Amino acid sequence: MSSVEVRSVTKAWGETRAVDDVSFSVAKGELVVLLGPSGCGKSTMLRMIAGLDEPTTGMIAIEGRDVAGLTGSARGVAMVFQSYALFPHLTVSDNITFGLSVRGTSKQEMAERLARTAALLDLDKLLRRKPAQLSGGQQQRVALGRALIAKAPVCLLDEPLSNLDAQLRQELRREIRALQQRLGITMIYVTHDQTEAMSMADRVILMRGGRIEQNGRPAELYERPATLFAARFIGGAPMNFLDLDDAPLGAVIAGSTGPALFAGPGRGRVLGLRPEDVAVDSANGRAAFHATVTAVEYLGGEALVSCSLGDRAIQARTRGDGAPPIGTAVGLSWDAAASHVFDAASGERLTIDTGTAATSPQLHTVTNQGQIRA
Amino acid sequence: MAAPRASRLNIHLQGWLLVLPAVVLLATFTHVPAVETVIDSFFSTPHGKRPAVYIGFDQYRTMLADPVFWLAFRNNLLYALITVPLAIALALLMALWVNGRIKGRAALRLAFFTPTILPMVAAANIWLFFYTPDYGLLNQIIRLFGFESVNWLGSPATALPALMAVTVWKEAGFFMIFFLAALQQVPPVLYEAARMENASSWLVFRRITWPLLMPTTLFVAVNALINAFRVVDQVIAMTGGGPNNATALLLFYIFQVAFSFWDSGYAAALSVVLLSTLAIIAFLQFFLLDRKIHYR
Ligand SMILES: Nc1ncnc2c1ncn2[C@@H]1O[C@H](COP(=O)(O)OP(=O)(O)OP(=O)(O)O)[C@@H](O)[C@H]1O
Ligand SMILES: [Mg+2]
Questions:
Q1: How far is it, in rounded angstroms, from Cα A22 to Cα A20?
Q2: Of A91, A20, A88, A87, which is closest to residue A57 (Cα–Cα)?
Q3: How far apart are CA A224 and CA B239, in angstroms?
Q4: Strands (E), A248-284
Q5: Average pLDDT over chain A, rounded to whole?
Q6: Three-state DSSP class for A186?
Q7: Which end is more exposed in chain A, N or C (fewer Cβ atoms within 10 Å of the end residue's Cβ)?
Q8: Residue A332 contacts residue A279 (beta carbons within 8 Å)
């Protein structure tokens, strides 16, 4: 039995459909991230699961039960809001136990649960403070505590870390993930930060314009993006997109001289290559594609090398100390398996055997690839 | 050397010149009269050729023995203790109502605010019509239910409550604006957090809205209290302090003593008492409002 089941849910505000015929299910103890750009309907979806909004059409089941008409705790759902939504006039402990007190839990049980939750989140010393006397990270923990204390089977988080600085975000990310796994709760986590999504999730649901673009494990989204949009959205440095063209021997990169990539037509198709999959060969030797370095972005451990490939631009990642100087002629190569081909018009991924072209690009043992992937 | 000092002096002089009009106005019309009033209260009232003579606390002794003063004081206290909570409660109810998502919200807000815009004398006239014996609106209504017609402003038992009703009606709309502003300051997400726990609306009011409105409530309460001790116009317009001083309030009594009985010495002593009362309330305000009841 899945913990949360969303079946053809649509939410319309007048003409606009914030969520459009969305279906997915979340298994017990799974952390699913709803990922997508601003305005794609993530919050709306989450609020419908929470019961704060009712879907226009469709059905939501939690723990196998249709929960239409129930809100929050009544449907076994707790929520952490983006702005924390702590009650400013209540102490930390009153904030955390608010839900329990609403339900008339006994004083003793409340104290016990509070102690346990506070210990879990390292809040013991802050219990008597007011929210205004806490740092952002501490407020976040309190909000988390308020959601966790009731032991609702499902916990929803709407961009819980977006108000924090980068370092704290990373720390809390790990903490939330560890907590979720330890307590075995089902979590649905909304974010527009793909790094956050990839590093935390069991599964990522990528949304766009109210629809699900792709639903899969982080590695699936990274290795086999289903659409151009998914390919563009996932990954640290943006993916390279190169238009393809027809040639006698198969598809070639438009506007450049190089061997055919695969047999079949190339026009109307786009080749996607992640910078970390492109190897730069300074020796300009065996590589099949000849390019010129136009810019180098030094990032410390690694560098982002921009090259011109014919009249197209392409980026590659190298080790920080291995970046060639600007103006150098270099050879580019990539593992045939690392190339993604999309239909330019529909944006859909095309399943094409890139290894069977008449002259496939030479297979290099790409030296830097393993390190970057790790 | 001399030039900069001269110009600095110049700046100080300029500063003083700039505040001078305000200082002069404030002093002539507020501070000097206040001090003079205190001084006057220790002198007898001059009559014709008899000049004022120092009589110490005689005026205050007279006051302690004056039943009308005590009646006015008691009336005023009652007036404050009843109108202030009522006006606040009504204001809060109206604010909660028009803050909700209801149809015709803007019109309702305006309707509630209208009494505040009306000049007191106009409002008094409207209410005089309500209270008119026999054919007044109120009497017509109660006669529908088979009751005897009541002379609202004419009988000592109902005159003061009748005045209180006017005040509540007039003040509540004004205070509603403060509550409305405060309600709109409460982040809606707090209510959503409460909804997640399925808290009843009464519980949400008691544990979230009311505490968050506390600073506003205190501010409004203190102002209402001060207003309650400064009421005079509607007494003059509606009852003239009668019947039998049943609606005499402090300021009205002072007005009477000063300008009907021309006993300026005694009026000064009464004014000192009123001023002290207001000062106490003002201090209360500073004390209460400065003790951090603010959450945000
Ligand atoms: N109450 C509402 N009335 C009308 N339109 C709304 C309402 N709430 C959301 N929308 C619209 O629905 C769409 C999705 O909004 P939603 O808040 O779910 O986006 P989001 O993915 O959470 O974006 P963000 O990352 O910026 O928070 C937006 O186009 C928004 O304008
Ligand atoms: Mg959102």
A1: 6
A2: A20
A3: 88
A4: 250-253, 269-273, 278-281
A5: 87
A6: strand
A7: C
A8: yes
pLDDT in tens, A119-157: 988 888 999 999 999 988 899 999 999 999 988 999 999
| Token duo for residue B15 | 């500063």
Q: How many CA atoms lie within 13 A of B17 on its CB side?
A: 6
**Closest-CA residue of chain A to B201:** A102
For ligand 1, mutation pick of A9, A35, A44 (most atoms within 8 Å of CB): A44
Question: What token pair was written down for A269?
Answer: 């198709």
Separation of alpha carbons B179 and B94, rounded Å: 9
Residue A239 is encoded by which pair of tokens? 């993916």
Q: What is the ipTM of this complex?
A: 0.82
Domains assigned to chain A: 2-226 (3.40.50.300), 232-373 (2.40.50.140)
CB A298 near ligand 1, within 6 Å: no
Q: Which of A89, A95, A139 to mutate to test the interface with B (most CBs of B within 10 A)?
A: A89
**For residue B56, what are its two tokens?**
């110490």
- Which residue's C-alpha comes closest to atom 31 of ligand 1? A39
Picking from A47, A87, A103 by the largest number of B CB atoms within 10 A of its own CB, the best residue to mutate is A87
Q: What is the CA radius of gyration of chain A?
A: 25
**Tens digit of pLDDT for each residue in B177-186?**
999 999 998 9
Q: What is the mean pLDDT of residues A355-365?
A: 42
pLDDT value of position A20? 92
In chain B, the domains with their CATH numbers are 67-292 (1.10.3720.10)
Q: Is A226 in the pocket of ligand 1 (CB under 6 A)?
A: no
Phi, psi (rounded to 5 degrees) for A14? 60, -120
User: CA B171 to CA B94: how far, in whole Å?
Assistant: 12
Distance of CA B277 to CAs A31, A75, B134, B168, B284, Å?
65, 57, 39, 21, 11
Residue positions counted in chain A: 374
